[in-house]
Amino acid sequence: MKAARRILLVVLLVLVAAGLWLRSRLVASLPRMDGELRLQGLQAPVQVERDALGVPTVRGESRRDVAFATGFLHAQERFFQMDLLRRRSAGELSELVGEAAFKADSRMRVHRLRDRARRALAGSAPDLRRVLEAYSQGVNAGLRSLGAPTFEYLMLRTRPEPWAPEDSYLVLLSMFAQLQGTTGGGEALAAWMRDLLPGPLVGFLLPEGTEWDAPMIGQPFASPPIPGPEVIDLRRSKAAALVRPRTPAPFELDLEPRPLAASNAWAVAGSRTADGGALLADELHLDISIPNLWYRASLVWPAGGGRSHRITGVTLPGAPAMVVGSNSRVAWGFSNSLVDTTDVVLLDIDPRRPDHYLAPGGSRPFQRFTETVTIKGGETRPVEVQWTMWGPVLEDDHRGRRQALRWVAHEEGAVDFEALRLETAQSLEQALRTARSSGFPALNFVAADSAGHVGWTILGRVPRRVGLDGQLPASWADGRRRWEGLLAPEEVPQIVDPASGRVWTANNRLLDGTGLDELGRGGYLFGARARQIRDDLFAVERATVADMRGIQLDNRAVFLARWRDLLLRVLTPESVAADPRRAEMRALVERWGGRAAVDSAGYRLVRTFRIYLARQVFDALVAPCKQEDPEFDFIREADQFEGPLWQIVTRRPMHLLKPEHKSWDDQFLAAADEVTRSLTEDGSALRDHTWGERNTTAIRHPLSRAIPGLGRWLDMPHRQLPGDQDMPRVQHPAHGATLRMVVSPGREEAGIFNMPGGQSGHPLSPHYGDSHGAWEEGAPAPFLPGPAVSRLTLLPPR
Q1: Which of 258-267, 535-544, 577-586 shows the lowest per-residue confidence on average (mean pLDDT)?
Q2: pTM assigned to the model
Q3: How many Å apart are CA 616 and CA 670, to the nearest integer?
Q4: CA 522 to chain centre
Q5: Which 3 state secondary structure label does DSSP give 472?
Q6: DSSP H or E run through 382
Q7: pLDDT average, residue stretch 101-123
């Protein structure tokens, strides 16, 4: 007994000692907030003042030293995050986390992005390279100044690797990959359907837009006609009957086409605001994790003549640039443009030499590279990569054809940090010119200046296509289809001071005619969100910051109103009398409130009814595709499906009705009943299934997904939030506004800002989640940093 007690006592002492050691290491890895530090690589003193939310104001004697200090802060507070970003794009995650990342690394190694980053750094303008090098020095100084590696490296039993200037390019390339994809997926969907379905049906199912489009130039496109029974007749089709109906569980009903980086960005000219100053509003919709993607900062350095540059906004840990913000003369923001920057090239293999492919001028050998992936623990594995003159060879398509990817990220001159020059832009004209010349992922660039002007263009480079529109994979062997470099900056469309005094973007089509041809006609998101933003903007005569915030938080279900009316027409007195559950559904839908509100069961019922009906209708129409691949999911891939769906449910063509239904009313009622069944099969009542139950946040740290038990310590609390995809307030459990800001250049003190999480990535920091509550509530925080509560002086070596 005494021996057992001694053993227990020893175990307890070991556990206490281990806990004390772990806590001491965690405390040692907290960032330095006050005092003085002398750092190798700094040329002059830099002052870092943090406000009550940990937002720093960095004052230095040059842009170079400010970049150094920015790197220092990023390393101290967010290094694991920036390490993941560089490793994801380089295909080097396996070295950090092990075998689980090997497949992802293998897919990225195809693109050889570390080599691309090195070449981009070598081609950087000398002044920008100096900034990148200073930033890298600052990152490594920040790492060395920590008393211990941050907790992520303790958990993973490894140490952080130093930062190199090329790594900032890898972070930039990670945004190319996230925003544009690395496989040309949209073309693959269209090709699959073209090969297996009648042409008129494909044209109907994949329209360029719908009546909900809200372009700044042009009108909504006319909908393609419903194909007749001579094209497809489900009443006679055997294929549709062979497709097993698939009704997903209610908690899997996200209908966004793919996990896309979306966003809202708009501006109102000074002539349309209450105080005469132009207003810029921006929200960046991405997957949300902890820490948040962005790091707030205000950067100050001399401009000459006794003046200073001061720019406030958000940086991306891993890079020295201010991503969005305001410099008192110009404010700018982004949304994903979804401009088509990839093409899939079908390869014609030389029949005499299978290691060659046909190209303009004759047969060419594949370039072959061996990429070596290091697995945590020291094992290395080769990944064989093939390239063509157009780009890397991808996996074979659905017909076994070899294919390559032409991607703007591989093009010389398409990846750079020229956008750093936005920080000192003095006018809208200068900002637009800089944006069009910058090598960023193609983004909608919305800007306003202190003179009251507003405008839009594309930030980033766009390919110049010849002989193709980029909608379908095709052979480029004979040279008739090709890219001829990139559009010159002056060729990229722009809009300056439109007569309405308003510009708006929400990942929708913005142009028609030649401008649209230049940017590509595929990939734009469904226009309902853009249309609601446009209508909200035009409803305000003299806009204020509060008006802009109100639009950002608008969760009215404008688009779904017609679906609510349809569902009520389905739930007739006769149908309700036949099943009491339908009576409850009708009552909830009648008082749905017209918003994606957390307490609305009616909103969720309308939304889910549309989804179930869409699956039933389209699964039958694309049955041949589903027979070849049961995982083929049209409505997850084709974002414009509302156009053909609404035509079908309003015109009710009998030849597109599945044989098991006697009428379209019969199918509508079957979909409504399926909604009720799926939500109540556990014995619960429909009224308990509110939108908030469905839309509960799950905002997590990357390690909590991999290591059980860490979530309570690392993740944000679950919270039911309003909002949905097709309205200005975009919100899903782990996707939504990674920032919201409204600012008037020259009037920054009146601006507002929100973001989830907090400044720090350290869970013991008071700034790990102190911005989160205000973000959840949509409560505005000041755009500018507040009064200093801590001061850190960074000094050069003696």
Answers
A1: 258-267
A2: 0.95
A3: 10
A4: 18
A5: coil
A6: strand 380-387
A7: 97
